[in-house]
Amino acid sequence: MTAYVLVAGGHMGGWLWRDVVDRLRERGAEAYAATLTGMGDRRHLAGPETDLETHIEDLVQLIDHLDAPEVVLVAHCHGSFPALGAADRRPERVSRIVYVSAPLPMDGFSVHGLVDAFEPDPAVRDGWRQRAEQAEDGWRIPPPSLDGVQAQNSVADVPADALARLVRLAAPQPLGTLTQPLRLSGAAAELPMSGVFCTGTGMNIAMVESLVRSGEPRFQVLAEPQVGFFELGTGHWPMLSVPDELAGVLLRAAAGEGQRVSA
Fold first, then answer.
1. Fewer Cβ neighbours under 10 Å: the N or C end of the chain?
2. Cβ–Cβ contacts within 10 Å for residue 145, how many?
3. Chain-centre distance of CA 135, in angstroms?
4. Which of the 8 DSSP states describes residue 34?
5. CA Rg, the chain, in Å?
6. What is the value of pTM for the model shown?
7. Residues 72-88: pLDDT tens digits?
């Protein structure tokens, strides 16, 4: 039986996936929401040494302690980096990686490095740099305020109580988890992959088709036959705004469904 391991992004813990975990279990699936070191109820365990490798090892240990022979790794936002790192270390245990409103990690890039290299808006790049430079005690980035969440991401369709909980439970992010480059062996390169675009953020499958048609080598992986895509008509937080629909998409992704893009 396949188990789902759900990974939250920056400042968030496993609590973020509560409604989706419930829906998956109601439909007969195993589901586990990971809380990485320094996040959620493990925020007190972070220190200056907490980095991307720490979060990768958190997921490796969770995978190793599950009885299910295979897991579907589901990553939201910047949780895609530790998720791919864990898949690279345990490719024989991972049947698919599903990226939900998330960037596609690249070998040799950190989260900050990817933003610096590929974000076209200089104001966004500068904002990331400033947050890093202003890290508390030199190693942790304060969680965003309600205004910050609303300004940085689409919160379309998120109920007011869920948005308040998101802000209340957001934890400081250890800087090293965002600045340490991801190092891959290539072991996960052939794993099936799914992308879930939340159209309220301005992302959609048509953009993937355009990137593939550009001929840029790093985007050609998106046209591989084991890669499929889905769209959800909501904002950046589908686990809060449309948990039923997201759970359904995750089940379909695990079954190999999804729109393909041809080169």
1. N
2. 11
3. 22
4. E
5. 17
6. 0.96
7. 999 999 999 999 999 99
